[in-house]
Design a protein that fits this description.
two-stranded antiparallel sheet; Amino acid/polyamine transporter I; 9 strands; alpha/beta; 59% helix; 644 residues
Amino acid sequence: MQTNVRPALPLRPARAADTVRLAMVVGALGVVFGDLGTSPIYTIQTVFNPSDPHPIPLSREHVYGVVSLVFWAVMLIVTLTYVMLVMRADNHGEGGIMALITLVLKWGKGRRAAITLATLGIFGAALFFGDSMITPAISVLSAVEGLKVVEPRLAGWVVPLTAVIILGLFALQRRGTATVGRLFGPVMIVWFVAIGACGVFGIAAHPEILKALSPVYAVSFMVRHFGTAFFSLAAVVLAVTGAEALYADMGHFGRPAITRAWVFVVMPACVLNYAGQGALLLGDERAVSAPFFLLAPGWARLPMVLLATAATVIASQAVITGAYSVASQAAQLGYLPRLRVAHTSESTIGQIYVPWINGLLMVSVLILVFAFRSSAALAFAFGMAVTGTITITTLLFFYIARTRWGTPLWIVVTGGGALMFIDLLFVAANMTKLIHGAWVPLLIGLTAFTVMTTWQRGREIVTRQRERAEGPLGEFIDRLPSYDPPLVRVAGTAVFLNRGKRTAPLAMRANVEHNRVLHEHVVIMAIETLQVPRVPDAERTEVDAMGSAEDRVIHVIARFGYMERPNVPGALRLLDAGQTEGPIDVDGASYFLSKLELRKGTAPTMAPWRKSIFIATSYITADAAEYFNLPIDRTVVMGSRIEV
């Protein structure tokens, strides 16, 4: 049984973009910007890391060039690409690459081109799952490693403390995004004030570093020292990690709140800190080992380590909530099975918690922490997932801009081409780190991509076979009076949950054809989830009689809001006898579910290994009886075997 999700009519979808409240901006600071806001901890340090396979020599010219590259990467990728452009493309208020895929499939003019781009988008979403695993590991590790700056003897505690913090973070997720945002938002305000102040402290010693904000220094560095500058891009991209989370988390807080938080708080603080670190390196090359923590005055370093640890926990929140949104949308598009999704806000449909994804991310993050054991080792892997997702997102956005909004071709070619060239430069630079760890997000992405495309393909195969087995509902009901011997009509009400109105429920067909039994009253019910928090009882149900009055078979559509747990018995109690051709005994009704047992068949529908993946993935589907609030003692599950 699958629910049908459709827009509510005439009710209006709840969207955070309708009003911009201070609380939403603070919440966005706490959830959305943690990743971007903590990038200064490790970006400059990674660029000049002497253990890098392609080390960047520390010199005055290189410092100016790197700071300029970092600044313009932030401006072009975060501010221009995401905040000003990509976030304009939303799907009922939802953002993220899965939202773009939906829009491409909906608005694509060429079916083949749309499918190709959608498939590429699925790979981008798969890479985002890799980012969601790597970000908590590298963020928390980089902050806890600050203990070594304060007291080198604490080095052995870095990995165990990181693991404990990560366990606590994932345990907190069930409280909901809004709760987490209220808790984390004030902490992030303190964080941005602190890193901005440290940046000003560093700039005051060498104010000439502000010249690096001119694009001349970035262009000069790329032209005069292309080899060095090119390899530095693999670390420079760390400054924009989290940009994709802005878009993926748009459904949680809305575009206006995210835009204001970025322009007035996050961007100024990060730019000041990057410039401050550059100024510090101009005055003391020995600070290259930990420029972020050494930028703070000596008395403030331990508090900064503690604040950085809290901030990087929050950084992890951005991609975790983004992963929830991507997984939920992937399930709606048919690329993942129906997952149990808990909505945690009555005002914003995008604020969700997905327990299965939460557990998967937690285990994966812990494995990465214990496998790599340092932020420097993870940094080689980090950029690959980010650059891949950003590049694919840019491509899909400009396709939509052209096909849906009619943007002139010359703007798409010149503007989109320039941004794509920049994105591809970052991708190429990160490919040089392939054997040094960049293979990790690619492997994660390829695995997730294989699972999602396999589920989508297997679902199409199963749907066709199920529809053939079910047959048309109208013809099935018309044949009920013609059975010989006649069907036995037993007392009571039978409720059969079905996906829609076109085909007969498998459980009902089995009951009739094998048991030759039909209840006195038969209700075929389909569930629809609307994009509003709650549905009034007056608009809850829609009834349609099937067959003749003697058949006493009706079809009911029950509608629920996204904040409501579907309650089938409760919906039935709203029906009156005039609608149902007689009274329905809800308290004594029997509920029938059709459950499919999947088996590997010999038909060449998919490769055998893909059939195994599809069947294994089917086991994580949420339990239908529990989800629809059916009484366990009166629920009958009738299985049917389908070969894939």
